[in-house]
Amino acid sequence: MSANPVEHAFDVSVYMTELGVRAREASAGMAMASSQAKDDALRSIADLLEQGADELKAENRKDLEVGRRNGLDAALLDRLELNDGRIGSMAEGLRQIAALPDPVGEISEMKYRPSGIQVGRMRVPLGVIGIIYESRPNVTADAAGLCLKSGNATIMRGGSEAIHSNRAIARSLRTGLAGAGLPAEAVQVVETTDRAAVGEMLRMKSAIDVIIPRGGKGLISRVSDESLIPVVKHLDGICHVYIDDSADPRMAEAIAFNAKTHRYGVCNAMETLLVAQGVAARILPRLGERYREAGVELRGCPRTCEILAGIREAEEEDWRAEYLAPVLAIRVVDGPDEAIAHINTYGSHHTDSIVTGDYARARRFLREVDSSSVMVNASTRFADGFEYGLGAEIGISTDKLHARGPVGLEGLTTRKFIVLGDGNIRT
Q1: pLDDT digits over 84-95, tens only?
Q2: Max alpha carbon distance in the chain (Å)?
Q3: How far is it, in rounded angstroms, from Cα 73 to Cα 124?
Q4: DSSP characters for 57-115?
Q5: How confident is the model at residue 404 (pLDDT cuts 50, 70, 90)?
Q6: For residue 392, what pLDDT is reported?
Q7: DSSP for residue 403
Q8: Statement: residue 6 has pLDDT above 90
């Protein structure tokens, strides 16, 4: 098969099957790889990316030129661009992954049973991880690094708009793996832009153990609907902050402002602010002023509109909106009951926070809000693998199985039972 199959007539099904076979074979070698070999490979790949920065930028310029001709907007072109700073960040990210503890082989929960056997659990790789993503070529290095460290092989299908960049990054990945004595086929970057490759990938049950989509809602919905393979996903980041009537006003203002304005286009940004009726008239005017100064458009329920004159009245779809923009929906609620009900009705099970001085209400919020991250007196912007001490993440899962919340190295592994005996037999 040609190294660049997109340039030649070929059978997509055959090509994808070959990738799957190679990845499955490589996964056996990765599962047995030592921590030292994996870390050596990660550091080598980081060095290769920096040393090959000029070539990588040249390939990236090809993608940018095609993107401009195809009418990609400025935001997408910015996400697509690789400059020295972003290449350096990719390299530093790989070095940070190398510095993390290796989860593979960790044994825990060893217990003696009455029969005399010892039973525990060992952490092992998932096997082959399929990653389908859009636009940002840095995902190729970041995701491959996490898969490598966790002892997995990976098949990666990036967006057609980044094909030249992804191929260039893949060369560094494979060279670094081979140089460390690991199978270069542990990272298979799909080199065809044929859309049929995604459909083929979603059916490769014998080759791929789990699919992780990274991109817009359309991509993730398609993968979730069509995949015959388990999917780790999140569809939306509709995050809430609820300001309880026992909250410290200064704390509440700081958290609510940070959760919305720290960054707009991220999945852990607050999209809906809930405020208890008892403090709404005291807290909302100051917050509303700060939001306006920051350029945030406010949309409120009728009670909010009475307090903040001149804002747009929220519609039903606003409570379900992931704006990823300087737009915020605000609702005044009677108290914790209504706040929790609103979150569990309209939220996306991503991240929700309560600001309160009441210990019992905080515990209730933690127990009853059905989200992957639930916080007390903290900004939703902390819902991040690095901030949680995971070192890095491949995404944030709003599923309940197999991983939930930020998916780091442990989320790319599973556990098996191990049993130690000394000639024990069951009677």
Answers
A1: 999 999 999 999
A2: 79
A3: 42
A4: HHHHHHHHHHHHHTT--HHHHHHH---HHHHHHHHHHHHHHHHSPP-TT-EEEEEE-TT
A5: confident
A6: 73
A7: -
A8: no
Is 298:318 a contact under the CB 8 Å cutoff?
Answer: no
CA angle 391, 392, 395 (to 5 degrees): 145
How much is the mean pLDDT over the chain? 93
**Which residues 6+ apart lie within 8 Å of 16 measured at CB?**
190, 197, 200, 201, 204
Nearest to 268 by CA among 393, 364, 356: 393
Q: Contact at 8 Å (CB) between 245 and 236?
A: no
List CB contacts of 293: < 8 A, sequence separation 6 or more: none
For 161-317, list the strands marked E by DSSP.
187-189, 210-214, 239-243, 270-276, 297-300, 312-313
Pairing of strands 396-397, 405-406: antiparallel
- Written as six digits, the tokens of 119 are 């039973």
Q: 């949680």: which residue's tokens?
A: 388
